[in-house]
Design goal:
alpha/beta, about 20% strand, about 325 residues, Metallo-beta-lactamase, Chain A
Amino acid sequence: MAKWEYTKGLHEVGNGLYAYLMPDGGWCWSNAGLIVDGDETVLIDTLFDLPMTSDMLSTMRDAVPAAQRIGKLVNTHANADHTWGNQLVKEAEIIASTGCAEEFDHFLPETLLEMMGQTSELGVLGEFLEHCFSPFDIRGIELTPPTTTFSDEKSITVGDKKVDLYSVGPAHTRGDVLVHLPDENMMFAGDILFVGGHPVIWDGPVDNWRKACDKILELNPDIVVPGHGPVAGQEEVRRFRAYLDEIEHEVRKRFDAGMDEMEAAKDIALANFEDWMDAERVYANVASIYREIRGVPHGEGMTPMEVFAGMAELFKHQKTNGLGHHGHNH
């Protein structure tokens, strides 16, 4: 397959199919997509803040006149970096899985704004929040939730293009969706696929995420646009699936050895993935797999903020010891 340059902006990856890429793919630098046929359009995801989403929409409208009016928006999951720009296309039908809709307001823009105003008092956590979120302008965001939900599969059309939506969560989040164009041999995978960066297992179980990778491999698209990172193909999906296998294996070993989450996270070195950035996310993945092993019911155990604080501590540890690969040259 052709390799698209990993540069910011709109890339045509097929006939009427576009990926909007945001390097370097780290915290909140997420990708979106656009499907166009005739005068019909479907947007796949919005971005983390209003200025970036607005910039993306004007780029799309300049390149593709039909994008003046976005008819439908598919949110691949509820995370802020894929939904907080929704209000800029609020006249569209917003489609998502029931899982996405259920957790749509699990993290509020005002909560993050308040925390960003206190980073100097938050110590290690404050430094990490600055690392992740300081490049963005999260003012003025009004959560704009899905208007149409589905629980398993749904097909929509864009002109003559058939678009199949598959709900594959809980995995990365409670409500992950794969967007597949069978006749075009391509897929928008949302955060079921990260390329070049560690994922965060917010929800799990990890086996569901593996099954979601298997679903991509079975549908066999030539082109896969990940939620973060450059445009990919099957090879990257297989490598990502291998990451899930390896991290689960390493985490279970340390659980059995009696280590706590932080000891395990500091001890794990994924030699096959040391070129991937955001290695502090290993902490979140340890916490998720530990919760799974212990049989802690979903939504109990550590709060997302506690997980974030753990990542902050691991980030500091990795930086101090020259470990981890951080990227983010914005």
